[in-house]
Every structure is written in structure tokens, then in C-alpha cells.
Design brief:
It is built from 21 helices and 15 strands. By secondary structure, it is of the alpha/beta class. The protein has 2 domains: about 250 residues, no CATH class; about 270 residues, Aminopeptidase, CATH 3.40.630. The chain starts with a helix and ends with a helix. It comes from Lepisosteus oculatus (Spotted gar).
Length: about 625
């Protein structure tokens, strides 16, 4: 405390920080990137372990043998689905009733804000079918969910068949202490959202759904099952949920433990675990797996039906069967045994999963990176903003050596008026509001005047506003106050630095991956930009690191990590699809990525763009 309370020492420390400001900023950026890349190195990670005592052992005897019944039910389901042209509601109701479940249905409808061309739907109507197996040995205050989406075509028929077979098998057991809910949801995420809102008696997204006639207890955990073949080579665990939420790590540990017990190959991000961590290939594999998780989490979209459960504090994951070229095959009976073991362990829970981590990264299923390990990487990047803000504050606080008449040539001592800062801030945020509101509102007018579809109108309007924003604010500080001043851009940059630091800090606390990616691209811009740098070169760099181009670069990186590289034309098409999907996810499920970028990150970037063209 003496260092800060002593004026001389405080002045010396401030002088040191300002004198070494640029080297410290460069060092912090390199250290932050190096720290993050080092997280995938196995000696720097922690081995996964079960924190919940009730699930600490896999010593249960799985007796499920209904694989053939599951395949038979899957084939029958496929026939009736094809005949009905969608969800075979009547057949599912009869099938669940014949297996001793309390069966209920829920109809729902949803009009999308604009057509979803990727799935060719606009007016969505469907029916969810679910059956409840009441707990015979408990007061029925808690429940577990096993769901399988009714997918178009031949996809996911085996998942529904296995769900029905497990329901029949579980019906004959007497050890259940929780209600078991078997759900077949229509129209994937929309149907799941309708069912969850009906179960919890809320209406968050404006979907029109019939109230549920039957409920179980409070849902403790859920698994969504996706199987589209009679045999599989591996099971992929999908964790990323809405707005980057993740389930409790113990659910991942439970899945991994039973995969080890049953001998099923298990993957995360579609990648098998390697044991050669001390080689370059092994480290590269871990980095790729971790980066895929970061990119998925940063997208903010639910990557499976489980992603919507997390909003209601229900630990959930999606188990996806993969049938690849590998010779090792696993039959559906073994998958059923794995699910039986997991649900028997979840049945032992006396309270919600809470003892393990909710914030983590996974370079593999057996190793994890906790929040205490990865947050320093972000903190080092955010520190750059504070260092630059301190440097600007010192410059603004230092009296300017004037001429004999007390003024500096071309500069007023009184500094800029408030309006010179309010105007660019206001116009930048109004541009962000237009980017958020106008694409959906103006789609019908655009369709009437241009030969485009509604979806194309929404995406092209968003891109037009985004590009037009580059031309709007860079001279707005002169609208009301005349010529800009040297002190004016410093004040505006100080405001922008602090604003960006708060934005990134809040984002990283909610979704670390998104905050880290934005920090990687926005911090160098904020730290280096001044009106005195080469404008053409810096303008190109700023556009390349703008939020829109960051999204495009992330798409290319994601496909490269998936070993499915894109051409420029394919990348542009995927970018347009990602923009429309991001807007749809916000309106349908409440994803926060699009409003965050449009209302906050893009206006903050425009403030920095304004500084570059300050005159």
C-alpha cells in the first residue's frame, strides 16, 4: 500500500509503466497466446476424475439384451414415419403404451421470423410424444430424461428404436428412484424448446404450444440420443449448449467411464484420444480438439437437443453414434448397456450435479482445463487494454507545454467539447441498433423491390448496414464541433479502451471462448490505432479483424480443423448461412451472439474506426 499512497513512488511507477508501455503490451499479447496454446500440453492439464460420490464407481451389472428388439422397433418406426410423412404420432403413442408408460402428446407451432432455407421451413407445426415411467420406490419428485429427435428421412430411426427398447427394459426393473421420461421430439430444437417451456410452464421464445398434461419430477439430468445405423464405430459426446453453456464435468466423466467399461470407442469433437502426448503429432491433435471446442462454444448455438436443457439448469449432453470406415464395430446392444449403466448411476444422485466444474475446456475426454488455468490467457490480453488506457490517462493528465501566449499551436487548451465525443458514440451505437433491428423488419420491403428471397433479403440487408457503417462515423466528430483535436481522439480512444475491456470481461465470464476470440482480434486494433498511423494499411488490418471478418476466418479455421477445407466461394456461402442461422438462433432460442456483436462489439469497433480517420 505504501507504493500507491506515496506520491513519489506512485509517480515513479506510472512513469515506468508509460515508458515501457509498448514492450509490456507486446509481451502480454505473446504471453496470452502462448499460455492458451500451452493448455493443450498434457502435463499442464488435469486428469478427469469423478467428484460426485454417488457416481464414483461403474460397478453395476448391465443386463440389457434388447438390441434386436430395438432394431425391429426402428424398422417399424421408419415405415410408419415414411407413411405419415413425418412424426408417426399414433404409432408412437401405441408403442409407448404397450411398454407400460404413461403417454402424452404436445402439439406446437412456430412461425419463423424468416424462412430457414437450410431446412426448408417457415411455418412449423409438430407434435412431441413422451412417456413417463413412474418411480416405484420414491415420492416421484425427481426425474431423468432420455430423448431422441424425429429427424427427416432415414436419420435417427435407430435412436428411437433403442429408446423404446430401453423403456420396455427399464419398465421391468424395480430399483428406479426417479421418474424416467422418454421423449421423441418433432422438428429437432424447436420441438425440444416447446416441450421444455411446457414442462416448466414458461414462454421465453414466444412459441405456441399446448400445455403439458403429464409431468414427472424436477429433471436432474438428460441425454439426447442420435443413432442412424445398426452398428457404430464410436460414440461422440456433444457438450456445447446455448450461449456456450456446458454441463457439469461429472456427466462427461460418467460417459467416459462407461465407454471404458463397455469397450466402446469414444470421441469428442469427432476425434479419438491419443496417448503420444509427448510428440508433435500428439500435441497437435490435442490443440485441434481444444480449438474445435472453443469455436463451437464461441458460436453460442446449441449443437444438439441437449443444449436447451442447460438453460433450465439441467445437466445434459448429446450422445451421437458414428459409423465410419474403422473396422471396429459396436452393436446397438452394447450402446444400450452403456445407457443403462449411466442412468442407473444418475438414479443414485441425492442432489443435482454440482461438485465438479461447469467451466472447462477438453483437449481430450481424459484431460481437462479448468477455469483457473485458462482465464489467465484472457487476462493477459485484457491487461493490454488497461495498460494503454493508463498511458492515455497519463498523457491527458500531463499539462501541455504551451507557447508564450499559453496555447499550443493548432490546439485549444480547453480541449474538445462533450459533443465531439457524444456524436461518434451515439452514431456508432445507432448503426448497431440498425444492424440488429432492420434486417428482419425490412425483409418484406426488400423482397418487393429486389429479386431476392426473404432469407437473402435479411442477410444482404445486414451486410449492407455493416458495410455502410464503415462510411458513417469516421467524420461524425466534426458534425457539431468543427475540427477534431489531438486531445479529442485521445479521450475517445480512452473511452473505447475501457468500453472494450468491460465488454470482453463480461463476455469471457459468460462464454470464455467467445471472449478470448474477440480479445485476440480486437485488442491489437484497440492498442495500436491512432490517427497518425498509415491509414490505408491500418484500415485493411482493421477490416480484416472486424467482427464480420472474424466470423469468416473462424469458419475457415473450423472447417480446416475438421479436415474439410473450403474454397473461397464455399466459405462465402457458409458465411451467409452462418449469418442467417445466427439471427434465427437469436429469435428462436435466445442466442446472445448476434445481439452482442450488433449492439456492442460492432459499435465499439466503429469507435476505433472513427479514431483512425480523425482529422
Amino acid at each position: 500500500m505504501g507504493l500507491l499512497s506515496d506520491p513519489n513512488r506512485r509517480r515513479a511507477l506510472t512513469s515506468l509503466l508509460t515508458r515501457l508501455n509498448t514492450p509490456l503490451c507486446v509481451l502480454c499479447y505473446l504471453a496470452g497466446v502462448a499460455w492458451f496454446m500451452g493448455l493443450a500440453f498434457e502435463p499442464f492439464t488435469l486428469r478427469t476424475y469423478m467428484s460426485e460420490n454417488a457416481m464414483g464407481s461403474t460397478m453395476v451389472e448391465e443386463r440389457f439384451t434388447g438390441g434386436e428388439r430395438a432394431l425391429s422397433a426402428a424398422r417399424e418406426f421408419a415405415v410408419h414415419k415414411k407413411k405419415a410423412g413425418g412424426m408417426p404420432v399414433e404409432w408412437l403413442v401405441q408403442a409407448m403404451q404397450s411398454r407400460g408408460l404413461e403417454v402424452y402428446t404436445q402439439t406446437f407451432s412456430r412461425t419463423l421470423p424468416f424462412p430457414d432455407e437450410s431446412k426448408e421451413r417457415y411455418m412449423v407445426k409438430g407434435t412431441n410424444v413422451y412417456g413417463i415411467l413412474r418411480a416405484p420406490r420414491a415420492p416421484r419428485t425427481e426425474s431423468l430424461v432420455l430423448s431422441a429427435p424425429c429427424s427427416p428421412g432415414t436419420a435417427n430411426n435407430q435412436a428411437v428404436g433403442l429408446l423404446l427398447s430401453l423403456a420396455q427394459y427399464f419398465r421391468g426393473q424395480i430399483y428406479w428412484a426417479k421418474d424416467l421420461i422418454f421423449l421423441v421430439n418433432d422438428h429437432d430444437l424447436i420441438g425440444m424448446e416447446a416441450w421444455l417451456e411446457g414442462y416448466h410452464d414458461v414462454n421465453i421464445t414466444g412459441i405456441s404450444a399446448q400445455p403439458l398434461q403429464g409431468r414427472g419430477g424436477s429433471i436432474q439430468a438428460a441425454l439426447s440420443l442420435e443413432l442412424s445405423s445398426d452398428v457404430i464405430t464410436s460414440l461422440d459426446l456433444v457438450l456445447e449448449g446455448l450461449n456456450g453453456q456446458l454441463p457439469n464435468l461429472d456427466l462427461t466423466n460418467l460417459f467416459y467411464a462407461f465407454c471404458q467399461k463397455t469397450g466402446i470407442l469414444c470421441t469428442i469433437q469427432g476425434k479419438l484420444q491419443r496417448n503420444d502426448w509427448d510428440t508433435v503429432a500428439g500435441y497437435t491433435h490435442s490443440v485441434q480438439t481444444m480449438l474445435l471446442m472453443v469455436l463451437r462454444q464461441a458460436s453460442g448455438r446449441p449443437w444438439g437437443d441437449h443444449g436447451l436443457f442447460l438453460r433450465y439448469h439441467i445437466e445434459a449432453a448429446t450422445v451421437r453414434g458414428i459409423n465410419s470406415f474403422r473396422q471396429y464395430k459396436t452393436d446397438i446392444t452394447t450402446v444400450g448397456k452403456l445407457l443403462e449403466g449411466m442412468y442407473r448411476k444418475l438414479n443414485n444422485l441425492l442432489e443435482r450435479l454440482h461438485q465438479s466444474y461447469f467451466f472447462y475446456l477438453l483437449p481430450s475426454l481424459s484431460r481437462f482445463v479448468s477455469i483457473g488455468y485458462y482465464m489467465p490467457a484472457f487476462s493477459l490480453l485484457a491487461l493490454i487494454l488497461l495498460l494503454r488506457a493508463l498511458d492515455l490517462w497519463v498523457q491527458l493528465s500531463t499539462p501541455i507545454a504551451g507557447l508564450e501566449d499559453g496555447t499550443v499551436e493548432g490546439e485549444e487548451v480547453s480541449g474538445p467539447g462533450v459533443l465531439s465525443l457524444v456524436t461518434p458514440v451515439l452514431i456508432s451505437h445507432l448503426t448497431g441498433v440498425a444492424l440488429y433491428i432492420l434486417p428482419v423488419l425490412s425483409q418484406h420491403a426488400a423482397v418487393q423491390h429486389f429479386p431476392v428471397s426473404e432469407t437473402e433479403a435479411v442477410v444482404l440487408t445486414a451486410i449492407t448496414i455493416y458495410v455502410a457503417g464503415l462510411a458513417l462515423p469516421h467524420n461524425t466528430h466534426r458534425v457539431l464541433s468543427g475540427e477534431g483535436t489531438e486531445r479529442g481522439w485521445r479521450l475517445l480512444k480512452l473511452l473505447g479502451l475501457l468500453y472494450l475491456a468491460v465488454l470482453l470481461g463480461c463476455t469471457a465470464l459468460i462464454n470464455f471462448s467467445l471472449g478470448f476470440i474477440l480479445a485476440l482480434t480486437q485488442v491489437p486494433i484497440a492498442a495500436l490505432i491512432t490517427p497518425h498511423v498509415p491509414r490505408l494499411l491500418c484500415a485493411g488490418a482493421m477490416i480484416l479483424l472486424s467482427p464480420g471478418c472474424t466470423l469468416l476466418l473462424c469458419l475457415f479455421l473450423y472447417q480446416e480443423l475438421q479436415e474439410a477445407p473450403l474454397t473461397l466461394l464455399e466459405g462465402w456461402g457458409l458465411f451467409l448461412s452462418a449469418v442467417s442461422q445466427g439471427i434465427l438462433d437469436h429469435h428462436l432460442y435466445g442466442s446472445l451472439l448476434y445481439p452482442l456483436l450488433a449492439l456492442f462489439i460492432f459499435p465499439c469497433w466503429l469507435l476505433l474506426w472513427n479514431i483512425l480517420f480523425w482529422k
